[in-house]
Amino acid sequence: MTTDNVHEWDATDADHIEHMAALLPAWFCPRMADDDWHFGLLLTTGQLLHIETIDAVHATDGGGLWMDVRLGEPDGVHSEWMPARGWPRPTHSPTRRRTCSVNVAQVVCAVELADT
Questions:
Q1: Is 56 left (phi over 0), alpha (psi -120 to 50) or beta?
Q2: How far is CA 73 from each of CA 10, 60, 63, 95, rounded to the nearest angstrom?
Q3: Domain of 14, in residue numbers
Q4: Would you place residue 11 in the very low, low, confident or very high pLDDT band (cuts 50, 70, 90)?
Q5: CA dist., res. 82 & res. 61, Å (int)
Q6: Fewest CB atoms within 10 A around its CB: which of 57, 97, 110, 115?
Q7: What is the pLDDT of residues 68-94, one digit of tens each?
Q8: Could you write out the DSSP letters of every residue in 32-59?
């Protein structure tokens, strides 16, 4: 759907994962948009943002991409080992309101934060 110069695809669209995968790397969307799990987005700031799922991807007419994500809670990831391996501790949701929008240009990489 298109609204106010923003193209938005979310979980209410029948083909939402295919739409997201057209904008983001192919492995990224099916795993992170179709599951509630413990994922990390390493940002250009060096922070590791703990998310549970991608709810939507927005593409602006200017070429910008934004993801609506649900932030993770601290009890979901055991991160004591991360600094010893060169990874920052994950940043979690500071409140019970866990919706967040992330500028895709600020994401360096995406990883799973828990074993399956």
A1: beta
A2: 22, 29, 31, 9
A3: 2-112
A4: low
A5: 38
A6: 115
A7: 999 998 776 777 888 888 999 999 998
A8: HHS----EEEEETTS-EEEEEEEEEEEE
The predicted-structure confidence for 16-75, as pLDDT tens digits, reads as follows 777 777 788 767 777 888 888 899 999 999 999 999 999 988 888 898 999 999 999 877
Closest CA to 66 of 15, 9, 4, 27: 9
Distance (Å, whole) CA 22 – CA 39: 20
Residue 89 DSSP class: P
pTM of the model: 0.80
Burial category of 72 from C-beta neighbours within 10 Å (exposed 0-12, middle 13-18, buried 19 and up) = buried
